[in-house]
Amino acid sequence: xxxxxxxxxxxxxxxxxxxxxxxxxxxxxxxxxxxxxxxxxxxxxxxxxxxxxxxxxxxxxxxxxxxxxxxxxxxxxxxxxxxxxxxxxxxxxxxxxxxxxxxxxxxxxxxxxxxxxxxxxxxxxxxxxxxxxxxxxxxxxxxxxxxxxxxxxxxxxxxxxxxxxxxxxxxxxxxxxxxxxxxxxxxxxxxxxxxxxxxxxxxxxxxxxxxxxxxxxxxxxxxxxxxxxxxxxxxxx
Length: 237
Fold this sequence. Notes:
By secondary structure, the protein is mainly alpha-helical.
């Protein structure tokens, strides 16, 4: 299995919130499950750490993230300041082609929700904000947005309910409509309101004392991935 495939499977698993916080992802076990070398697994784990989907602890290994709500307010406050400015700028400068790109994006978000694909919705939801930052054509803003959005992705994964996902999708469409109409004030208000509402919806999910093992969850995820890729052979490792 290629590194890109391992990354796709693990990132989907993490974004779906299927593993408890602070679980160690051992290189040896993952290498055995994927049928690859530990070196290949290590590269993927470090990439996931860089993307803030895992926590890499020196001399200890990789661990799933246990989000801390105490940080949430500061992070979302920073996002409101940055992204309200992005919305104001884009309302004055969006091209017709960019409007169509945003329209397609919010349509794909809605489609993922209709299909019950929460992991894809979370990815697309984050990408919506990345796309807005990219459209400013300012690399400093893009870096800041990527950092802040990355730090909140796991909060949404662990703490926001499926009902919140529906609300978030509708809020993105409201932002899009304001931007498409070149309504600067409405765009700023819609963005600030959206990020504030996401923050208020962050409620810890009920956790069971002992969930499924990493092996069982990962084996199922690999089987799902192979089915999606259209592979016909049994999903055994």
